[in-house]
Amino acid sequence: VTVSVPELDRSDGSRPMPGEGLDRSRAPPRVGGTGIRDLLEILGAPDVLSLAGGTPDPALLPVADLRTAYESVLARPETAGEALQYSSSQGHPSLRNEIARRMVADGVPCTSDNIAITAGSQQALDLLGKLFIWPGDTVAVGRPTYLGAIQAFDPYRPRYVELSAGACAAEPALSIVYVVPDFHNPTGRRMSVTEREALLAQTSGVLIEDAAYRPLAFDGSRQPSLLELDCRRCGSIEKARTIFCGTLSKTVSPGLRIGWICAPARVIDKIALLKQGADVHASTINQLVAARVLRTEPTDRLLHVRTEYARRAEALQDALTQSLAGVVTWTRPEGGFFTWVELPPMLDASRLLKRSITEAKVAFVPGAAFFARTPSHACLRLSCSMLPPDAIAEAVARLSRVIKESLNDHPGPE
Amino acid sequence: VTVSVPELDRSDGSRPMPGEGLDRSRAPPRVGGTGIRDLLEILGAPDVLSLAGGTPDPALLPVADLRTAYESVLARPETAGEALQYSSSQGHPSLRNEIARRMVADGVPCTSDNIAITAGSQQALDLLGKLFIWPGDTVAVGRPTYLGAIQAFDPYRPRYVELSAGACAAEPALSIVYVVPDFHNPTGRRMSVTEREALLAQTSGVLIEDAAYRPLAFDGSRQPSLLELDCRRCGSIEKARTIFCGTLSKTVSPGLRIGWICAPARVIDKIALLKQGADVHASTINQLVAARVLRTEPTDRLLHVRTEYARRAEALQDALTQSLAGVVTWTRPEGGFFTWVELPPMLDASRLLKRSITEAKVAFVPGAAFFARTPSHACLRLSCSMLPPDAIAEAVARLSRVIKESLNDHPGPE
Questions:
Q1: With CB atoms 3.0 to 4.6 Å apart as the test, which of A180, A342, B196, B257 could cross-link to A210 if both were Cys?
Q2: Bridge partners of A178?
Q3: Is the confidence metric ipTM above 0.85 for this complex?
């Protein structure tokens, strides 16, 4: 098993000299050789119990419905011709309508003019970075935050400030803010309404709401989205400062690369132009298939998916309580895939991962990659999404032995 | 019929003031509200004979093969699970292998390590802009050039120099060059080997070769690609300075959004990291389907496609000769979709388009959008890809009447 351990490379990509040719490089990713890509490689090792990736379980995706949808689209010449042809940069109307309907049902008064279809919510972050971030601009992100957001924003060269969970930053007014209010990646936390209102009040510019895990509340409960609260406050989505990023990657299929931005129409118009320059449009056939699957989705499908992830999350909590209580601390998520573990400060999660993979065949993600500025090394992210409850229990039992042995090997605080 | 006429908006997007919120904007596209998106809208009008879009005819796409491929991938649980899941940012190995095999057959010694899969060749241009272009860098492009390249590069704020067809620029060494050597968009021209060698010799930095129309030589003939010449000259792709951008959009399906970059492995590694931050990866299912279609493609399929486009191009040439000889001049392409028409200098193609749509129900693309610096207005692009020969003859006959009437209305040169 080859493991790449995420370690931050803080080279800041200074401007190349003329004549460097192909070795000139405007945007050397700061997370050198790591990030999502290497996490997916850890995940792929065959005999490893993986608590690493933020990937949905394929068994919980609507595979049969997707198969039927591809076949119906391609069986009729008119829809086949449309599905295989170029289409609108803003997104196919049938999918934008379906997404707008869902946004309305989720409390946001909007129309399909407020929707742009993107290649997953990851591309939403890239396009928003391209639209809003000038070199040196301050972007406020969580401490910790989703590492893919750092990767999306970095090429636009912002300066970051870090917001601790629940606390607002010291800076009096935040001009660009990025948050994951529902079942945060990597901590699993959900913001309270009070926290949401406070964040809205403190944001003077653009508030980017990453809602990737929003449909996955274990008990089906909901908090109003930041965009809903913003619309309520100012009376119309056209006056809102919140930009909502959604995705089908956690509930329908990440392989389709379908996400969306919901925002004031004048922002959507700019995003559509940037999308056109970036890749013309999202896959037409995948958009038609997604629209069909959403339109015909049984009302109890998500209920089943949520219940199954809830069982896995509960197994993870039980296993942590049983074998690591008093040794480490951890979050208690109410939805999504992730639990965040704080280790005793003398431990380094990257070193722990090497040992965990080789000695215990258990994978997780070291926490350092999730910090935009100063990394903390004594923390890690566990995902419960890919394993059944008994495998989760086994993985945590093995991991706890590695943690305890590492603590024993350690001389302890001076 | 609502027509948006491309007109360049030369606002240069000065830095927004703090507190502008959602109306701040780092990258206002200079082609305000126009470009590819509006061309697709012109194309979509039902009763208009369109010589506008650079879209392949759906009747010439392998629709049945694609349908079979989707069904085979989704019918088996293992491949279905893989197709619907996250995958490698560099691209799925099965598709990279298939593309590498085709690049080798086309004269480029490379392996799948030299291939990155992108969302069409449009995204290749975006990622290459992100990697190589610093604000103020000089990028050399054709005069005219593909408007989508300008849209892809503009957010990275280059300065452009324009290379006239066949002539190299006055600047002694070009650090970043973008060209479409085969069946150029918008002129249809193919560069000779001598021109290719000269361009390689003059490029000191990065040479971006856009090969979107390369498979579509009417007689199946080929000139060596710039990348092949470069590899021959320096002995290995790893020492080459040429970056080749290919796409399946013109021959298999634009709706899949599958293209690729072929380049030295160290460039591919950087592109894969940027791709990860941009949208994680290209659609997994579309990559598996594309690999399957390429692997099983009948050897005579492209022959049939080329022959059909050749018939249409010939009909376009005949019609131009019959009704516009001595009035306008035009190029004589040996492949691809496009013919470039130079009008008498007193005519403005944008105004001509309005009249052509309303009076003659014929669409084309005014030439001004294809210039990176100083637009010429007395030129236009015709595409023969979407109409059968008799409709092309009818469209040109109608267009010629509008051109001649416009000339009669005009007082003539002072």
A1: A180
A2: A208
A3: yes
Separation between Cα atoms, residue B122 and residue A276, nearest integer Å: 9
Task: Tell me how far apart the alpha carbons of residues B243 and B186 are, in angstroms, rounded to a whole number.
Answer: 21
The b/e string for A59-85 (b: 16+ C-beta within 10 A; e otherwise) is ebbbbebbbbbbeebbeeeeebbbbbb
DSSP string computed for B211-241: -TTGGGBTT---PPPHHHHHHHHHSSGGG--
Place of tokens 């491309």: B6
pLDDT band for position B72 (cuts 50, 70, 90) = very high
Which helix (DSSP H) or strand (DSSP E) does residue B97 occupy?
helix B93-105
Q: Which amino acid is at A50?
A: S
Cβ of B205 under 8 Å from any chain A Cβ?
A: yes
What pTM was computed for the model? 0.92
Query: Chain B partners of A118 at a C-beta cutoff of 8 Å?
Result: 279
Asked whether the beta carbons of A210 and A177 are under 8 A apart, the reply is: no
Provide the mean pLDDT of chain A. Answer: 89
Tell me which residue has tokens 């018939």. Answer: B311
Question: Which residues of chain A does B60 touch, with a Cβ-Cβ cutoff of 8 Å?
Answer: none
Mean model confidence pLDDT for chain B: 89
Tokens encoding A57: 């379980």
* Alpha-carbon distances, residue B332 vs A53, A133, B342, B410 (angstroms): 54, 45, 12, 28
Q: Is the dihedral of CA A62, A65, A68, A69 positive or negative?
A: negative
CA atoms within 13 A on the CB side of A250: 26
Q: Is B46 on the interface with A (CB under 8 A)?
A: no
Inter-chain CB proximity A71 and B66 less than 8 Å:
no
Residue of A nearest to B88 (CA): A37
For residue A347, the one-letter residue type is L
Sheet strands (E) in B44-134? 49-50, 115-118
